[in-house]
Amino acid sequence: MNSFLEDHPHRRYNILTKEWVLVSPHRNKRPWQGKTETNAKKEELAYDPECYLCPTNSRISGEVNEDYKSTNVFTNDFGALLKETPNFQYNEGLMKAEGENGICKVICFSPNHSLTIPDMEIPALIDVVETWQKEYTELGSLPEINYIQIFENKGAIMGCSNPHPHGQIWAQHSIPSEIQHKTESQKEYFEKNGKSLLQAYIEQELEEGTRIISQNDSFVTLVPFWAKWPYEAMIVPKEQMNNIKGLSDKQKEDFAEQLKTLTQKFDKLFDTSFPYSAGIHQAPTDGGDYEEWHWHMSFYPPLLRSATIKKFMVGYEMFAMPQRDITAEFAADKLRAL
């Protein structure tokens, strides 16, 4: 890697969103006297009678969870999107609003209250992947649903309201801004070069090797060159596909293996149950062919120097653009070595 990037402030370009991130590697030497977090240790409880997500327990709504043995999916009792939202328009001068309907679901990864993704066995993780496929397919077939966001918030400092390992699926009528940006970038590159933008990118990354964390036959896990979070990572299929529906049995197993490998490395990095927000970006479901799309799963962890010191996106980051101190190469090297 260019030594300039290791030692001097510089900007890096995100080829998917067309945004820049400021990198300041020299700042990593500064002393820290700011806020620290508690060290989030793993839960050891297989079943919690007070947990709203454990099997056979009642939720706030009064609904009773199934006695599930694998994954469990239900409609969120407090969803941010509602199926029956009226279709209204509001236009008053420069003020514009419109109704947004959708469906929010919760997916429990396991009946075990304390079993997070890094501790799950590969067959159980394949069940999670297949549940994601099923929900994407079924929700995407609804005429009013044009985009589906699959994601997980892990850890209290990421706003997770219940420690039982779970993720969410939000299906909505409109296509979010982030997906619009990624669609435009990938379409521009595909029309000009006849191949996927991310396929070309991971080929360059694999040739250089500097930011690769791990890989197998079907997937590569890396710290993207433009990462803004300290230990941000991305899992990308080596073969271009615009959504997760078409994964073969081999690809599902390889995806599960990379999920487990990355999250185990995260936990080992600071010897803690590593918090993050993770999400799968894939093609919208509005009927377009989206031949340019190459789906990927991103992980945004906030921890910076230890299990108790996190990165804050404040000040300059709020008013100008993202900024990071440790380089993507430093983060990849640390994770790869674990």
What are the main properties of this structure?
globular, single chain, 338 residues, 22% strand, nine-stranded antiparallel beta sheet, alpha+beta, HIT family, subunit A, 26% helix
Structural features, described:
The chain is of the alpha+beta class and 338 residues long. The chain has one domain: HIT-like (HIT family, subunit A, 2-Layer Sandwich), CATH 3.30.428. It contains seven helices and 16 strands. It is globular.
Order of helices and strands: HEEEEEEHEEHHEEEHEEEEHEH
Cα distance spanning the termini: 21 Å
- Give the helix proportion (percent range): 25-40%
Total beta strand runs: 16
Q: Main beta sheet, described?
A: 9 strands, antiparallel
CATH topology: HIT family, subunit A
CATH C-level class is: Alpha Beta
CATH architecture: 2-Layer Sandwich
Low-pLDDT runs: 31-35
Q: In percent, how much strand structure appears in the residues?
A: 15-25%
CATH superfamily assignment?
HIT-like
How would you classify the helix and strand content by structural class? alpha+beta
Shape: globular
For the largest sheet, list the strands in their spatial order.
3-6-8-7-12-13-11-10-9
Please indicate the count of domains. Answer: 1
Please tell me how large the radius of gyration is: 20 Å
Number of distinct helices: 7
Residue-averaged pLDDT:
94
